[in-house]
Amino acid sequence: xxxxxxxxxxxxxxxxxxxxxxxxxxxxxxxxxxxxxxxxxxxxxxxxxxxxxxxxxxxxxxxxxxxxxxxxxxxxxxxxxxxxxxxxxxxxxxxxxxxxxxxxxxxxxxxxxxxxxxxxxxxxxxxxxxxxxxxxxxxxxxxxxxxxxxxxxxxxxxxxxxxxxxxxxxxxxxxxxxxxxxxxxxxxxxxxxxxxxxxxxxxxxxxxxxxxxxxxxxxxxxxxxxxxxxxxxxxxxxxxxxxxxxxxxxxxxxxxxxxxxxxxxxxxxxxxxxxxxxxxxxxxxxxxxxxxxxxxxxxxxxxxxxxxxxxxxx
Length: 314
Ligand code: MN
Fold this sequence. Notes:
By secondary structure, this protein is mainly beta. The chain has a single domain (23-264), classed as Jelly Rolls, CATH 2.60.120. Helix content is 5%, strand content 46%. It has two helices and 26 strands. A seven-stranded antiparallel β-sheet has the order 1-22-19-24-17-14-13, with no helix packed on it. Strands 2-3-4-11-6-9-12 form a seven-stranded antiparallel β-sheet, with no helix packed on it. Strands 5-10-7-8 form a four-stranded antiparallel β-sheet, with no helix packed on it. The protein is globular. The protein starts with 22 loop residues before the first strand and ends in a 28-residue tail after the last helix. Manganese (II) ion (MN) binds next to β5.
């Protein structure tokens, strides 16, 4: 997905919120956005809460009806400084990128693209799938060691799963309950899909911070109810989390070591300062070689000028 981040969500000039060291339950509303042809609920970033570990973006997309020829329909667009992590609970999407990757993703599989210093990609209808599309696209901010490095793409057709007392957990990224996902991660991080049917307790690490996003159903955390369109930030200092579930519920648990680098996010870029974003914007706007080419029939997404270039009023 394109995931254009605007100043509404992530004012680049504002310092990151502190990372509470104590457990908490901060519930925030997602913001409705349109990405390509699909309605999404953007849970991250929020004002005052831009990262959970290195997770810096979460779009719950759909459910939406798609056809063979019309799906996400996000044309070629660039990324810097991040990984895109795509996980579907229903439907199919075709990923194409400037590395030459061409990969259909289905429920239960993971697409993971690492931008390094520059990559571009498109997300398209598959040419054969017709039905409901639903899932989540996440971004991970890359650390200094890899954010200027090469781009890469991984597809994981199978991920480790564990049956807990009230849920089936699928490990998207990182380690969870003695299982390890094969997906690349460059900072200490975890992402877990939870298919819940009754109250469940999951293991956490005290030193990490966590959040939960509900895709379907409803879950109670420390007496607060969480439904689709909400994100619960849970702070640090928990060695376990109890999810109170009374109906079939689908949720994603995100966590990691607090990401201390101050990041600047604009449009599809994650950087450390405005000059880096200005340079990426200029490259995409003039279509130089930096972001390569994507073999896609969809039109390129035009560059979105950083708001600080738009005049002195702001
Ligand atoms: Mn994208």
